[in-house]
Amino acid sequence: MEKTFTQWKKQCLNKLDLSKKGSVDQDIEHVVSLLNSCEEYFTTSSCSGRIILIDGAPESDVQKQNCTWLFVSHQKCTSDDLVSGLAKSSRDAVLKFEPFVLHVQCRRLEDAQLMHSVAINSGFRNSGLTVGKTGKIITAIRSTHGLEVPLSHKGKLLAGHEYIGFLTQTANQKMEENLRRIHRFYQNLQSALTTEKLQKLQLPDHPSSQELQHPPDRLVTEKEEKSKRSVYKRRRKREQHKTDCCHGDKSSSVQELDDCLDLFT
């Protein structure tokens, strides 16, 4: 299995990029580079996220291979971009936002589980694992905050400029959130890989080795970020409004502080 994984990795990293773009998207180059530098992983396909306008036949069910790409961007777009694309439509145009997706082949099942844990904690809740008949272990990192809206039928526009402007704003907001999740995933991935490496370096009887037997517990999650913001708001309110509890007994004040600190742990 070890030799087979090494062969798979070498073959995958040496072959040509057959994607439409032909290269790794700029916003995830650092993520792909980090994973491919590890002995336990390599990436098989990726997309940083994109806003696309596709023109297809009604019966095609908007399958990309049977459609014309009127517009595509891996960055934010403008309403003029979409209007220009729609002007070329002769069939059924659909606006889509497709979030970040990454497929990673893993050496062992434990490596795949670590990757899956990092993905889930980073906000990619649609992630999963597959084990093929040949022994290939793939972690798919995906999220659910996509967008798909029909905008024309048989070349006839179905929406006004005001609504197209609204959809542009919505798609751009999703792109911004997508980039935040990618950043969070990269940070959590670095932390998890560092902890895993340290764990392997520990001797079995080393005093601190037991502390590293569990997955890293400092992965930054969306819930944790929201809790921090909530605590800051409550602290500001205490400073602005002096009440009797501020001058109460010391044990009460300590308990309140402990409650706040608990949200950070």
Query: Biggest sheet, strands in spatial order?
Result: 1-5-7-6
Q: What is the helix fraction of residues, given as a range?
A: 40-55%
Number of structural domains: 2
Mean pLDDT: 80
**What overall form do the CA principal axes indicate?**
elongated
Proportion of strand residues: 15-25%
Task: List its traits.
transferase; alpha+beta; 10 strands; 2 domains; four-stranded antiparallel beta sheet; SSo0622-like fold; tRNA processing
Write the layout of secondary structure elements.
Blueprint: H1 2-14, H2 29-36, E1 41-47, E2 50-56, E3 68-73, H3 79-86, E4 92-98, E5 101-106, H4 109-121, E6 128-131, E7 137-141, E8 147-150, E9 152-153, E10 156-157, H5 161-201, H6 222-240, H7 250-262
Helix pairs in contact: 4-5
What does this molecule look like?
- GO terms for molecular function: methyltransferase activity.
- Helices cover 43% and strands 19% of the residues.
- The chain has 265 residues and is α+β, with helices and mostly antiparallel strands.
- The strands form 3 sheets. The protein has a 4-stranded antiparallel β-sheet, sandwiched between helices.
- Helix 4 packs across helix 5 (161-201).
- 23% of the residues are buried.
In short:
43% of the residues lie in helices and 19% in strands. It has seven helices and ten strands.
